[in-house]
């Protein structure tokens, strides 16, 4: 097995990354489900498109976290990954507010 390029990551960082990954997947899945329900309910396909966009952003985030965990990305990417996770969370909150208010 190859060594990570920039050394291993600590157990604490691994737990934080797994929690962030699970949180992003769960909130994006809930938003996707809400988008599909609202699309069927109202007949506006814009809701489904917004749900697809959140799912695609979440997929990018998950892939970046996996690359970071394997050691393929520099440690400075950690802050970009957390910023993207915050942006996705905010996007999902705004999308759910748009669907239900």
UniProtKB/TrEMBL annotation:
Pfam families: DUF2678 (PF10856). The chain crosses the membrane at residues 19-38, 44-65, 77-100. It comes from the Eukaryota. Keywords: Membrane, Transmembrane, Transmembrane helix. This is DUF202 domain-containing protein. It comes from Coemansia reversa (strain ATCC 12441 / NRRL 1564). The lineage of its organism: Eukaryota, Fungi, Fungi incertae sedis, Zoopagomycota, Kickxellomycotina.
């Amino acid at each position: 097995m190859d060594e990570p390029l920039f050394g291993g990551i600590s157990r604490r960082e691994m737990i934080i990354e797994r929690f962030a990954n699970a949180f992003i997947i769960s909130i994006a899945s809930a938003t996707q489900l809400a988008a599909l329900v609202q699309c069927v309910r109202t007949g506006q396909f814009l809701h489904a498109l917004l749900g697809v966009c959140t799912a695609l952003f979440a997929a990018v985030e998950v892939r970046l976290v996996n690359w970071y965990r394997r050691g393929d990305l520099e440690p400075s990417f950690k802050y970009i990954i957390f910023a993207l996770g915050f942006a996705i969370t905010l996007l999902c909150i705004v999308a759910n507010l748009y669907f239900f208010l």
